[in-house]
Amino acid sequence: MQQLALLTERKFWPLFWTQFLGAFNDSFLKNALVIWITYRSVSVLGLDHQMMAVLSSGIFILPYFLFSATAGQLADKYDKAFLVRWIKTIEIGLMGLATMGFLLAGQGNQAGIVLLLVTIFLMGAHSTFFGPIKYSILPQLVGHEARLVGANALVEMATNLAILTGTLLGGVLIALAQGPVVVSLALLGIALLGRLASHFLGATVPAVPDLAVELNPVPPTVRILAFVYPQRAIWLSILGNSWFWLYGSVFLALFPSYGKDTLHAEEHVVTLFLTIFSVGVGIGSILCEKVSFDRLELGLVPFGSIGMTVFGVDLFFAGAPTAGLAGSDQLVSLEQFLALPACWRIMVDLFGLSLFSGLFIVPLYTLMQQRSADSHRSRVIAANNIVNAAFMVTQTLVVMALLHLQFTIPQIFLLLGILNALVAAYIYTLLPEFFLRFCVYLLAHLIYRLKCYSVGKIPREGPAVLVCNHVTFIDWFLIAADVRRPVRFVMDLSYARMPFLRAIFRDAKVIPIASAKRDPEVLERAFERISEELAAGELVCIFPEGRLTDDGKLSEFRPGVERIIERNRVPVVPMALGGLWGSFFSRKGGRALSRFRGLWSRVTLVVGDPVPPEEVSARSLQVIVQELAHQAEDKLRSG
Question: Residue 362's domain spans which residues?
């Protein structure tokens, strides 16, 4: 895969290994402590081991809520590589504190557990200051969209691989006779390696060098949230991202108790669960680049949320197949667990849940990075971390309350799965772009095999008019599938008002149009809407033929495009679809939709060079689109 080549690039690999080793130490320390607490039934301040395990996660997250705004300011003001080296140096000192805590805890001193909880809080603060740097520096390091999707996929894969390896070693090493000593030495060694990797990061240009950093975190927190909230796509991406971390953190926090108290299984079974979960998210993240065809594909977000719900809910129905497998005072071994066929259902659920989580999260991170201004990107990531933290601290309190109310862990999984469906539906209602991208993705890549050429010629920002030949009723869906910006399609009034599709068209901000003879008022309103959308910097797509082709040939272009450009002096981007004539949605042989044909066929979309407004005419555009249509068919024949 193309993103793996990034690992050899001098600009990228130091960041990859620096963040990998930092995430490793986070999970290594947290899991070693949680396993220690859970399987030795450690109680502090009257809290039992289940409460302590959940509390540990909450303590780690709290600094994100307190310090993220300040962290975002620092990341925008200073050289990010310089900040990373300081942060990794501080990590070495924090691992020294962890060493003291484990040594005291190994001697049975509860002060050691308290010191470890303090260290977890400080490691959370360490990660809080590293987070905005990690994601805001990526566009500077890798550049254009395809590489950014791949870089995000690698970062997510590395994070989950770090969680996996840290979890494995944390659980295994803490169980040794000299576990606290071995864990302490490992923590210090990994921190030193992380500092070494950070040394090779190249200097970056500060985004806003004259930015005033405020030590009081409240004012910048309020300002950055107020800045992000009106930007609907970014804000809802932050909400979706935050829900993902809440969802995943509940499972990670409850796995030890789920393994011991629900399945009555040994630590090795819990380690297996964490391994499956981490591998699944990593594979899902890497798959993102492949199934999104090297571009930001928001259609994967609903796809991911569906899988997260289905597999999360099924964990409840999987029950506790190990009940009665071992004696009342014994725990089920890993071998006994794997020998029971019903237990494989649990592992499939965990893998499916985590795989779809990877498909869910990568597009959201990429969207935040792409649609935030360079001068504010670190602070946007900081805003994301603040909302993440608020969700996860809330999750800690709610889960502790549910446990106090005697909810079982499978019941919490069921509740979480149902809430996931409701949250997803809410977000997709507020921002239909996610759901629409999902629909066009399925159509373009499951019903047809769509390939686009020169889509980069469509402006990444600013207004433009797209013109295309009109072969089928779903031309607009196919264009939407490959144009990564929202497009306002001009559509025949009777089609736009179809009962089943009306709501979708409304959410897509389709512009209904009719002929002057049929409804002059609708025609004038359409031109007004087109002008308003172009003035707002949007893309508008029209089909200048005004009707579907009856013979597969290009009809004469009507002069409406000239009227549009007279009012809004914007470029016109010509396009042509190939391979659709004769398909189920075309009029070949009679009415469209009359017989099943042409499904799973190859389709092409060829984009031409933008035409300046002063050169636009209906006739010249018709000639250009005709040539592009020939090119589209030639590309189909040549494979």
Answer: 10-431
